[in-house]
Amino acid sequence: MTRRTEVVSKKEEMMDASIKLFHVLTDQETFETYQKTFLSIFV
Q: Is 43 strand, coil or helix?
């Protein structure tokens, strides 16, 4: 029972982090900052 509670907790944390990331990246200025950082890795 404890194991299942921990798994559910981790799923909730991941969903929360995903929603926060999506919200941050909807701001154009913030998105461009991250875009430049990530693209510089591949150039």
A: coil
In the chain, count of helices (H) and strands (E)? 2, 0
Rounded CA separation 17/5 (Å): 18
Instruction: Please count the other Cβ atoms lying within 10 Å of the Cβ belonging to residue 41.
Output: 6
Q: What is the pTM of this model?
A: 0.52
CA dihedral 8, 17, 37, 34 (to 10 degrees): 150
Question: pLDDT tens digits, residue range 1-43?
Answer: 555 666 566 788 888 988 998 888 899 999 999 899 999 998 7
